[in-house]
Design brief:
Largest sheet: 2 strands, antiparallel
Number of helices: 11
Strand order of the largest sheet: 1-2
Shape: globular
Number of strands: 2
Strand content: under 5%
């Protein structure tokens, strides 16, 4: 969107206020995650920092919270926001299995996974049924639970920041800018938990920025926050909770697996490039 000089200056001012507030409040929870336990409590709180920063910024700018695109999206966008992340995670692990970078879990590993999900009390549960029930439960109840935390991020990133950035940047610029901020916001956690910091920083930034293009596209097309919330939750559940337990690690190929793995970065990059092309062509 083209804006005059004063409007562009005001937009950048708003963006920097948001980023400043976000940095201050996030640093408290980043510290807690790295130094205090149990860290999961602080991770959930951290994920709501973008929403808090957005709301504070809007209050400072005397904007109504209702200006965030709260309305429920058209059904086609809701369906695609579930289907696309589930599909790219599935493709990632099919390629991992095909190229021998990881194997399908054996019966023992599957039953350990079923035990963690508290499914072992369901009659005489067999591995095949454990996988089916586990995927269904995680793909529904697990996604809904995940939405409660990712909503905090998405109010900030897709509900506020991409719309403010749109005043001064193109679709490509918005996707890159917000994607980079979103990825960089995770750096203290990556630095603390990564085994191969350089590689995992690269793969993480690639897949997050790639996701940013897809989620920006669906947010602008639907004029709704909810496709991004569902997309984010589904992606997290499938790449963190469903496929890793179903895959046996092979020594020397660990860097290809998981959310920070090379294969996931490659697959999401392809999807991201497609949606970049689609967004530019459609003048989103």
């Amino acid at each position: 969107m083209k804006q005059n000089s004063s409007e562009r200056k005001e937009a950048w001012n708003t963006i920097f206020i948001f980023l400043g507030i976000l940095t201050v409040i996030s640093s408290l929870f980043h510290y807690a995650i790295v130094n205090l336990y149990p860290s999961r409590i602080y991770v959930g709180a951290l994920m709501w920092c973008p929403a808090i920063a957005a709301i504070i910024t809007m209050k400072l700018k005397r904007r109504p919270i209702s200006s965030i695109p709260w309305k429920w999206a058209d059904g086609k966008y809701i369906r695609m926001s579930y289907f696309i992340p589930a599909m790219y995670v599935l493709i990632t692990y099919i390629l991992i299995w095909i190229f021998g970078l990881g194997g399908l879990s054996n019966e023992e590993n599957i039953m350990e996974w079923a035990t963690e999900l508290e499914l072992v009390g369901i009659g005489t549960l067999k591995p095949t049924f454990a996988v089916i029930i586990g995927v269904i439960l995680l793909g529904t109840v697990g996604v809904i639970r995940s939405m409660a935390t990712v909503l905090g991020e998405e109010i900030g990133w897709r509900g506020f920041l991409i719309y403010e950035s749109r005043k001064v940047l193109s679709f490509t610029g918005v996707s890159l800018f917000v994607g980079f901020i979103w990825a960089f916001w995770h750096w203290p956690i990556l630095l603390y938990y990564s085994e191969n910091v350089t590689l995992e920083f690269i793969t993480f930034f690639v897949f997050v920025i790639s996701m940013s293009f897809i989620m920006t596209y669906y947010t602008f097309k639907s004029k709704s926050l909810w496709p991004a919330v569902i997309f984010h939750a589904v992606s997290n559940v499938y790449i963190q909770k469903i496929f890793p337990p179903l895959t046996m690690k092979i020594e020397g190929t660990e860097h290809w697996l998981g959310e920070n793995g090379i294969m996931f970065a490659i697959v999401t990059l392809v999807f991201g490039m497609y949606y970049w092309y689609k967004g530019v062509k459609e003048k989103v």
